[in-house]
Specification:
alpha/beta; single chain; Spore Coat Polysaccharide Biosynthesis Protein SpsA, Chain A; Glycosyl transferase GT2 family; transferase; ten-stranded mixed β-sheet
Length: about 280
Amino acid sequence: MMVKDMSDKRLQILVSAVNKDAQKLPEAMNIESDAVIVNQLIGQDEKSCAEESEEYIFRDHAIKIMRRHEKGVGRSRNLALDNSDHEIIQFGDDDIVYDSGYAQKILAEFDAHPKADILLFNVKAQPGRETYWNEDFAKVTWKNYGRYPAYAICARRDKLISSGVRYSLLFGGGAPYMNGEDSLFLHDCLKAGLSVYRTDVAIGHELVSESTWFKGYTEKFFFDRGVLYHFLYGGMAFALGFRFLYKNRLTMCAEMGLFKCYRVLLSGIRHGRTIKE
């Protein structure tokens, strides 16, 4: 096994993957830094697909692959974070392709903004899944933190580790409740006092693929959104939940109706109050 002598340990990407040929990901994703790849072997036989780890060199970058049977994107991201050791860490997904030169762009942006603990970069989402596109460099606040996916997030590792912030095991793919883990992560970063900024620097794009969690505007969708709103907004969850549904009533509530959707969301908020992480 080749092990790289890493004197320059600045940038490390932490990739969460599911049932992939992990050795092919560095080339498929155009990774230009050292990496920790956690590949979850969901639904695969534990005897024929054993949990294991390996390290090798890809284009002069140290790649560590960890194959695990445990389920949940939060577990995956936390495991990768626990096994990281570089100055800057970057969260990634297995369906992102990075632009040539992206790694130097990330490092240059952190060097240009030493006050930033976390930077949120532009990654072009596939059509229909767009939630954000940064047009400037600006501070992220409680008013606008909720739009960003994990693959936008890069952080100074020592700041993140010392804050104690980790990904929730309750939300996201493979978890009990649907998406929202990235918003909750940034919520906790702000709560911990970390300085979060957005930047208009673009670093890659998302491949077209089917969503692993969205199955339509079902009762589970609204119930899980209620659970998430409890953790995000506390006592304001009822009001902000109604605002969210009213704003999207023509699309999200077209089948079930606004008030039924709201009743289901309320039940999710009440359920969230009983959960202890």
